[in-house]
Amino acid sequence: MDLRDGQTQPILDPNQPTHVYHLALDIGGSLAKLVYFTKDDNHLVDGEEGISHRKTLQKSNGHKQYPVLNGRLNFKKFETSKINDCLEFIKSMKLHIGGSQPQENPGSQPIAVKATGGGAYKYADLFKERLGIILDKEDEMDCLVAGANFLLEVVHQEAFTYMGDQKQFVQIDKNDLYPYLLVNIGSGVGMIKVEGEGKFERVSGTSIGGGTFLGLGKLLTKCKSFDELLELSYRGNNREVDMLVGDIYGGMDYSKIGLSSSAIASSFGKAISDNREREDYKPEDIARSLLRMISNNIGQISHLNALRFGLKRIFFGGFFIRKHPFTMDTLSVAVNFWSKGEAKAMFLRHEGFLGAVGSFMSSDKHGLKELLANEVVQRSPSKLSFAVDKTLRSLPDGEFNGDESIECSVYAA
């Protein structure tokens, strides 16, 4: 895999557009996600200032030897509605030209960058006009699955459960990963049965997803962004808006069918009988009710599809979750309740970057995955590690907000 960050000129294929492999994009309806590799300044490849033998190694791949570069895999997100901010970031970091300085005599061939998502088609002309690059489009579902498989097999402490305010990392055995249900919650929701590398099927979905939450939230509150709406929901009480089982049964449980008095009987149901106008309801209560309604719905549909195929593990991805405790707890409770504890909801630390990571991996030609799965790299306490060596101690339980990086090593072809 060619990741020669800092080269004065990109490598050219006389028959193909130039590919800069250290940048990949996933441009969705709500968010544009970037994954890009940056090499440590003191780990240089041949032809620059020599190779740092202390940390730059030689790894065999087939019949060839490739130098190994230490660096970071970086993650960055932008609102798709502000795509110009994304373009400016790429330009300022020179990601579209491999991080190099502008060439005095640039070639006539355009540079191609791997991209997936609907925006790879919608904004293709804009990227070409503004940055002079071609978006080399990869199938969205292929990238989602490839990204999820890669992260689950390689990244230490990638998956975890969350219920009742208890977060617990799950040790994934890559030899016993499949099958599982991947639920990607973006603007809408896609549900994919994954049975192995490149072996998957989209089995269901729903249009009630993150776009629904933000769209209805903007109509019902004064929030302008997803994060603002999530923050508002923290302060809310959905019981002021939702009709509970206890409201119907005089504060009692409906124990015969296993429903507690606090269970929601009807989302937004209290608005039916209350003699109040919309302005009389607190925005934070509306936001909380809306978040719980959508999360419960996704959780139940996920369970039904897992039940349909006999799957016990459900991995939730997509930026809808945002490590929001209430969202994760609601999804987990729904899966646990409807499956009677037989199925388990699990979450991913890099939940929103599955497609972007898959897009990044699609340019791999020299066994990047094999290297990252076996190379023990030096770790900073504030970073995650790609290494899966069981002798490594667990990393501090830091949060991942989508604008961070992971220490890793890659082949330089």
Automatic annotation (TrEMBL):
CDD domains: ASKHA_NBD_PanK-II_Pank4 (cd24123)
Cross-referenced InterPro entries: ATPase_NBD, Type_II_PanK
GO biological process, one term: coenzyme A biosynthetic process
SUPFAM superfamilies, alphabetized: Actin-like ATPase domain
Recorded GO CC terms: cytosol; nucleus
Transmembrane feature ranges: none
Cross-referenced Gene3D superfamilies: 3.30.420.40, 3.30.420.510
Any GO MF annotation of the entry: pantothenate kinase activity
Origin: domain of life: Eukaryota
Protein name: Type II pantothenate kinase
Keywords of this entry: Kinase, Transferase
